[in-house]
Amino acid sequence: MLSEFYDFKTQLWKWQSETATAWFFLSLPDDISKEIKFFCPRKGPGFGSIRVEVTIGESIWRTSIFPSKDTGKYLLPIKAAIRKAESFGEGDTVKCRLKVLL
Fold first, then answer.
1. How many Å apart are CA 36 and CA 86, to the nearest integer?
2. How many CB atoms lie within 10 A of CB 3?
């Protein structure tokens, strides 16, 4: 059964290519990624994305998580407004609550 909420802590990391703008992500833990993938298999448009509601500190927003081809974990993009509002940056450990929106 899919959990109502997933609470986890993980480190913020940056992805950047030579030609692209930097993106910041939180990688969902392996066990949470496996559970979500099992209960929410996705194929088709949206790169396998799954809609979620995220809480970090006082910030709550809706976005999508995406499966990583490299690690098999889901990746949660974190926009600059959230990083600024909650005062964290690359390399910081972040406490996150995630709810899958079915």
1. 26
2. 13
Q: What type of residue is 48?
A: G
Closest CA to 25 of 101, 76, 67, 72: 76
What domains are there in the chain, each with its CATH number?
Answer: 6-100 (2.40.30.100)
Per-residue tokens: 73: 């974990």
85 membership: H or E segment, kind and range: helix 80-85
Residues of the chain with pLDDT under 50: none
Which residue has tokens 């290519």?
Answer: 17
| pLDDT computed for residue 45 by the predictor | 63
Structure tokens at 89: 């940056």
Please tell me whether the overall predicted TM-score, pTM, comes out greater than 0.85 for this model: yes
Give the C-alpha separation, 86 to 76, whole Å. 16
CA distance 94 to 82: 12
Q: What are phi and psi of 71, to 5 degrees?
A: -110, -20
